[in-house]
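QUALITY CONTROL LOG
STEP: pairwise intake check
CHECKER ROLE: data steward
CRITERIA: each record must contain a sequence immediately followed by its structure tokens, with no blank fields

ENTRY 1 OF 2
RESULT FIELD BELOW
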Amino acid sequence: MDARLPLPALLSHALVAFTIEFDNEAEHLMPHRTTRHGSTAGDSKAPWLVSLAMWSNCMRFVTAEGVAVSELHRLARTQTNLRGMERWGYITVKPALAGRRPRPPRSQWVIRATPAGRKAQEIWRPLFGIVEKRWEARFGRGAIEALRKSLLDLVSRFEVQLPNCLPILGYGLFSHNLSRPEARRARGVGNDDGSPLPLSALLSKVLLMFALELESDSEVSLAICANVLRLVGERGTLVRDLARMAAISKEAMVVSVNFLEKRGYAAMRPESPGSRTKELVLTAKGDRARDKYRQLVWAIEDRWQARYGVNAVPNLRRQLELLVGDPTAGKSLLFSGLDPYPNGWRASLPALQGLPHYPVVSHRGGFPDGS
């Protein structure tokens, strides 16, 4: 086995760290409410807290004039949780014209930001630059510029336009929740308005392209392969330990384990006769899926080196390895920016011991650990 982290794991560590740092700052600055922690200063009308992905797949495109539902999906290149964003207080979705005329199809309805949504937009917009400046101070400006250059070099070679974020994962945690991919119209890489892509968008595009290629040749998603199959020992692993080991939420792990059980890749059994403690054991089918995952992550990296240029992938790997370093908490500089504010929702959780090997972006708000 190669002792190095696979390329998608390196990308995931950097992207999840960036997202958590971004989310912690947004939570600190923005009036909000959460299920377990109530509302900011008792503001019961504050929007429900969401993650960076919901800016990238929704709020970034909601202008003062509004945007049609179909146009939002085209611009974002992926689906958003539109009903959630409406229910959580960020947007309204209504027909453009009221009255007795027959209602147009929902795809033609117009999305507009609520006052709380506009406030969130003001807070989110500059945070990408703020976090990137922190990373330049933490890792060195040259290191971040080199990482950006390596990511841009690779993304510029992709033949399709991908979203600026990972999609909300569908059934089986597959990454196919996308609008129809568009062919790249030009060699340049940037936002539609010509502005440079944030670091999180570049990391997302490369990681998503890797996931799409792996999932085209695997019956198990990269998210489940990297966060679950990878961790199950030859004699099984305690189910209660898996979420902590993978650094994803318990809810995301339940979804993953249920998929593996239903599809015959794994089974639950008592840790010992009569024990109520369960462990997850891979079936022969699960063993084959894990072996295939281990082969594919390196095979795809080799394919990319042949397809995108002999230096593009090695350069990116080198920059990511410098950034991630030792990937365990307390040793990697990525963790130095992840301490939550004392009143933040993450402050009530056990300290992170690692980062996911693939982000689990859920419909519940887009948080990268599936929370």
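ENTRY 2 OF 2
RESULT FIELD BELOW
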Amino acid sequence: MKAASRERLREAWRRLRGGELTPGRAAASVAVGIAIGVLPLWGVHWALVLAVCLPLRLDASVAYLASNVSLPVFAPFITFAEIAIGSRVLRGAWPTIAPEQVKQIALGTVLGELALGTAIVAAGGAATGGALAYVATALVRRRRQ
């Protein structure tokens, strides 16, 4: 029984890893992880990583590690940056708000800014992180050869 359980665990780990970590797979895994990590869907990042990485045979463990860019310490700053970028693109100005204006904020406007800003931050973060992962993995592989 123990041997069968160990073999199931090994197979699950192999499936999560998806295969050899080439520069391309590392880049794609990190890009997916960062794109998922900046989504304001806290608590479901692991499920999203699995849903994307398993069918694409990406490294889910690397992607999940990269998705942790939104640790609770950083999440408010990432969310604020997404709203600010969305506001800049939609209205042509950075958001400004005084304490007396807080009750007058239109939720639909903020959600629109957040959605657009999240798409922009996710794309930019994924491209940057993926490129860095590609270079780092290629350098490590070259040194080992």
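INTAKE CHECK: passed for both entries
DESCRIPTIVE NOTE, ENTRY 2: The two ends are 40 Å apart (CA to CA).
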